[in-house]
Amino acid sequence: MRRRNAFYAQAGGVTAVLNASAAALIEACRETDGRIGKVFAGRAGILGALREELIDTSLESESTLAALRHTPGGAFGSARFRLGEFDDERSRYERIAAVFAAHDIGYFFYNGGNGSADTTLKLSKLPELLGEPLVCVHVPKTIDNDLPETDCSPGFGSAAKYLAVSLREAGADVASMASTSTRVFILEAMGRHAGWMVAAMGLAVDDHGDPPHLLLFAEVPFEETRFLERVRECVAHHGYCVVGVSEGLRYPSGEFVSQVGEALPGRNAQLGGVAPWLAQLVHNRLNLKCHWATADYLQRSARHIASAVDLHHAEAVARSAVALALEGRTGVMPTIVRTSDSPYAWETGCADLRSVATLEKRLPREFIAADRFHITEAARAYLLPLIQGEAYPPFRDGLPVHARLTGALAPKTLPAADDLVESVALGKKT
Amino acid sequence: MRRRNAFYAQAGGVTAVLNASAAALIEACRETDGRIGKVFAGRAGILGALREELIDTSLESESTLAALRHTPGGAFGSARFRLGEFDDERSRYERIAAVFAAHDIGYFFYNGGNGSADTTLKLSKLPELLGEPLVCVHVPKTIDNDLPETDCSPGFGSAAKYLAVSLREAGADVASMASTSTRVFILEAMGRHAGWMVAAMGLAVDDHGDPPHLLLFAEVPFEETRFLERVRECVAHHGYCVVGVSEGLRYPSGEFVSQVGEALPGRNAQLGGVAPWLAQLVHNRLNLKCHWATADYLQRSARHIASAVDLHHAEAVARSAVALALEGRTGVMPTIVRTSDSPYAWETGCADLRSVATLEKRLPREFIAADRFHITEAARAYLLPLIQGEAYPPFRDGLPVHARLTGALAPKTLPAADDLVESVALGKKT
């Protein structure tokens, strides 16, 4: 097979270990003895392909790549943008094909969640639709852990570790002051539709009675009276109550308990703020002093407390993606396959993107306790291996060191096509 | 001097390194060759003295004490309770004197902030008022860094490090997605009256243009129009804007920008929620997508990313307190004395509590930039040494290990005096 270049792009919400996947993928391409040429990274994700803004990663030093391994965020820019159907957006597909042809790109790697798996699947049809040869491999990533086919999604383990660690620490704080101060503490986690991250907080329990005492999952309809009764009982019994809640908590009617602003057409509603809302409820109805925290982006960027297992997963799926691409496998995604819970053992596998794209893996029923306010032992057995090990970044002057890319673009060879991306700001969430 | 026992109590808001002070103090007492006998720790702080609930720390193993060094919160319980004037609350002072006499307590160590410095000063008058000999030493602690006389307050450095690290990480997140998603991110820090913690976020800047772009200090009256104009400019220039804000942000009128609930008599208003309020403002007025985080207790309990310098300070003031007590110094507080900025060097000193009690050290004017939206080089020179070094706790099963005290109480010898503490729930904030 003749040597061709690769295009790599980051998509959707970033994670603490997304750039570790990027670094591993670029390194793996460099190690193919020239079977893969340059790796171009899309500036701002797939938009980099539409705009012909291709960061030439061959100009980045090995030390910069190594530093990516401990840099949170998406170093090349990550976009929330979803390609529509081929028949509706033919000009965009043609543009991407033209840009790829102009830069001799034969491999497309897309590092994202459900939405970008769908985009990868669509682009894998380019050869049959436009006659352009292209091998398309999706590299899994999402803190939401809702990708099907893979045992877990890289990015989740680190967010899970951050939340479990933070919950345990804040729990110790509240426990020490409850007799004269705050009685109820509420920590809000991201997760619009699936309660994986709230479930992770449950790992903070080491002994009976430890925080968190109540978990409110996105999957369990919120019953106000029952919740307040449990808070009251918990404070009476333990002296305090620590609650973990998903931003995606809904009423039995299906409405989100807290929704910030109105949903724009083609966009999901921006959530956030369920914790202060619950705190107000507890204060008003139970007359208990209540504090709350909303970690928001801190939970998905906390590289300083990343899970070593998660970091290994992020690197492994990237290396596996390159191996699959070299075998000519297209429309696929490398997966994490668990072979044992304890001791934890895993290997990489491969899934067809038709079993992945746009599908969401919910928290299984057997992971939610009978009273629906905590996790089960089965959930612990699943979750605990994913937060093992502390992959500390290097620090300088007391702060974590992040990579600074040169970000130099490959020279443009095609006329601009701004009309194809001008509506991006209203593109669908990836 | 005959051997007498010591009483130690924790007061007010806890920190990531408060228990390290406790451990160092107890260890230092154990090392006095019997000049100090047992160390009793007040259960729930000074309330332990009023209730005669004295945790006998001699029953805690050396390994438990060592584990305290990496346990956040207040392991013995920390109370928000302030003793009134002697003439107004004579019965409480008499009760404390009686409890101390019953347990042969000759040394009183109070580990807290401004309010507890005042309590320590008041108790140092017990010998002249009631004829009971007692040496009283205050051990400084507060994340607010507002204690006078000491260069810094143990607990602040770790909260500062947490905030600077989190800001840098979340800043990388926002930078990578701003072109199609969130443009403005707001991180809220604690600090009712002083903007020390917001100032610490300023350390995250490594190069020109790095986040945070705007800091809103408790000391600088909030001007809505000017703030929005700066956010708009910043987004136009950098593509995004990261803001750090103090929970104590006030309008020029002096009112808090966001105040949760009404202030109860004798209590400070419970703050929190200025970040979501600002986010709404930015969204409504500038039509920019905005995210926000409120770290709340996470910032004062994040032992996993504690500053090594802060930890050393916390241990040093505790050991110094014991040394001062053995010299018979009463009504004093050990301090941190900075002898050099770069390389950072420090030693312990001693301050008279009359220069400390109830006084608050504000952020100096020369630490706030001319435009009042950032810190100065002088502030950096002051702050940077305080966040140096990562004092990681041990982890087990992916989570930090915390001490579990037996918490056994010394046998009670006096009749109960519940009436003296029943109004505690409305006691003043310490």
How would you describe this structure to a colleague?
Two copies of one chain form a homodimer. Chain A is α/β, with parallel strands linked by helices. Chain A has two domains: 4-154 and 304-359 and 390-426, Rossmann fold (3-Layer(aba) Sandwich); 157-302, Phosphofructokinase domain (Rossmann fold, 3-Layer(aba) Sandwich), CATH 3.40.50.460. Helices cover 32% and strands 18% of the residues of chain A. Chain A is built from 13 helices and 16 strands. Chain A has helices at 18-30, 47-50, 62-68, 90-102, 114-123, 126-130, 156-177, 196-201, 224-238, 274-286, 298-301, 308-326, 377-383, and strands at 4-11, 36-42, 54-56, 78-79, 105-112, 135-140, 184-189, 214-216, 241-246, 259-260, 270-271, 290-294, 332-340, 345-352, 395-396, 399-400. In chain A, the strands form five sheets. In chain A, strands 1, 2, 3, 4, 5 and 6 form a six-stranded mixed sheet that branches. In chain A, strands 8-9-7-12 form a four-stranded parallel sheet, with helices on both faces. In chain A, strands 10-11 form a two-stranded antiparallel ribbon. In chain A, strand 1 (4-11), helix 1 and strand 2 form a beta-alpha-beta unit. In chain A, helix 1 (18-30) packs antiparallel against helix 3 and helix 1 packs parallel to helix 12. The longest helix of chain A has 22 residues, at 156-177. The first copy, chain A, starts with a strand and ends in a 30-residue tail after the last strand. Mean pLDDT of chain A is 93; it is low at 260-268 and 424-430.
